[in-house]
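Minutes, project check-in
Item: structure for the 114-residue chain
Input as provided by the requester:
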Amino acid sequence: MNDSPDRLSATALSLWSATTAKYELRTDELAVLEAACREMTLIERMDAILAEAEPVVKGSMGQPVVNPLIGEIRQHRSTMNTLLRSLKLPDDGGSVNQQRSAGQSSWAARARGA
């Protein structure tokens, strides 16, 4: 298991731990997982702030507008989802992981000259 990044929320740390325990990720994939976990931590912090805030606030001209945190949270969720999808981890069925293992076996055989 890889050492977890500092300052992750409990949920993000759980995601990191579960993912790194189950999958052997390359360095670039670990960086993507860390970025996704940091997004998750940020989302949780913004959600906590939004829970105490009004959903509609005054805009620059005094008009009612949607709290800007709502849009920010939506953007960060989209970013987190994109990062997680880019890891191409399998669903519980394991199809992607099986393909990865087969591909790695093929490359290893070529490297040995088989």
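Outcome recorded: The helical segments are 10-22, 27-51, 68-86, 95-111.
No further action items on this chain.
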